[in-house]
Write a structure and sequence with these properties.
This protein is an alpha/beta fold and 349 residues long. It has helices at 14-22, 32-45, 77-87, 92-100, 141-160, 176-187, 203-221, 230-237, 240-254, 264-276, 295-301, 318-322, 324-336, 340-343; strands at 56-62, 103-110, 121-123, 165-171, 258-261, 284-286.
């Protein structure tokens, strides 16, 4: 398996960064979370003058075998239809990428449809969707490795173009199901407390979804696999787009890029990535607390402090993209504000 070299950012600049922030011409601590963000970003980039060059948004698409069990109100074909829509600029993710100047990379990791005629979709298809994890692992070890490598490849592409920051999103009908299971297993939370409405299930639909997922977890525990092994948990339930997102997060941290984390699905990927490499969390900025049941609880598992709470649950990376102006403000604060000495203002604390 691919190994990633991920460690906490070097702390040697911490005091110098704090001193620079505290000497900006403002009351100490008066810019709150912006000051915390600036400190985090400076440590990630290992500089007193951080930048946000060439922001990049990675969107991975794939289908899920578990969708066949009626765990989502949306039909499978929505995945490929939305992937095509993204190439035409018509999705929520397109609008926010345009607004905030992000380059959008759309990658097919396992959509159950031939998207080869669309040159704006990068073809890295592993299979036409994962296996149905009610009966079998969603993917083999080889497929798991392939999905990780696709994600790492896309993060490398951003890094090689001079990007300092990446955002990651997904398109995959039924991917709240593996996310709920990961939340339950990695967070040691009863599954029933992790299963929500997804794209809009009613109470009966939620109950059916829980019963299917609970049975799938029971089958996993009796499969003969090492159920305490993080990679087994990820590959047994995960989607190709989710594992690719994990691969992108891991490579981004290795390259000291800022990682913007979106909603329920991407937070589940962040949680899984943190179980592989705990230090990755120091590279993550959590964009928002979404409207899906359980998202706030999953954020708490990561000790994450999301920037926004707007009732969002679209996915695609849209909530994280909405938070970008706040990140930009934190960087502008530490790089553009004057200090007391240069501004000829008495430092009064």
């Amino acid at each position: 398996m691919t190994k990633f070299n991920i460690h906490k950012p070097d702390d040697k600049l911490r005091q110098a960064i704090i001193d620079k922030i505290d000497n900006l011409n403002k009351p100490k601590g008066s810019l709150g979370r912006l000051e915390e963000l600036a400190l985090q970003i400076c440590l990630i980039e290992q500089t007193l003058s951080p930048t946000l060059h060439n922001p990049c948004h990675l969107l991975f698409g794939a289908d899920h075998g578990i969708e066949r069990e009626g765990v989502s109100v949306s039909p499978r074909e929505i995945t490929w239809q939305q992937m095509i829509n993204f190439t035409r600029g018509g999705g929520g993710v397109n609008m926010f990428c345009r607004q905030h100047g992000f380059k959008l990379r759309i990658t097919d990791v396992g959509v159950d449809y031939d998207l080869g005629m669309y040159p704006d979709i990068i073809n890295r298809k592993i299979a036409n969707g994962t296996g149905n994890f009610l009966y079998e692992p969603a993917m083999s070890l080889e497929q798991y490795q392939q999905a990780l490598n696709v994600g790492a490849e896309m993060a490398d592409a951003c890094f090689n173009e001079g990007s300092d920051i990446i955002c990651i999103g997904e398109m995959g009908i039924a991917n709240t199901s593996p996310s709920s299971i990961w939340m339950s297993i990695f967070g040691n939370i009863p599954l029933e407390e992790c299963v929500g409405a997804g794209a809009g299930l009613d109470n009966e639909g939620i109950r059916h979804k829980y019963e299917i997922l609970n049975k799938a977890v029971e089958n996993f525990k009796s499969s003969g696999l090492d159920c305490s092994n993080t990679e087994n948990i990820i590959r047994y339930f995960g989607g190709f787009e989710m594992v690719a997102a994990i691969g992108a997060m891991l490579r981004a941290a290795e390259c000291h890029l800022i990682i913007m984390v979106d909603g329920f699905i991407m937070t589940a990927c962040a949680l899984a990535a943190s179980r592989l490499y705990p230090d990755i969390v120091d590279y993550m900025i959590f964009g928002h607390s979404g409207d899906e049941g359980g998202h706030a609880r999953m954020l708490s598992l990561l000790n994450a402090k999301p920037l926004l709470s707007l009732g969002l649950r679209l996915g695609e990376g849209t909530g994280a993209l909405c938070s970008f102006p706040i990140i930009d403000s934190a960087v502008r604060m530490i790089t553009e504000m004057n200090n007391f000495q240069n501004a000829n203002i008495t430092k009064y604390f």
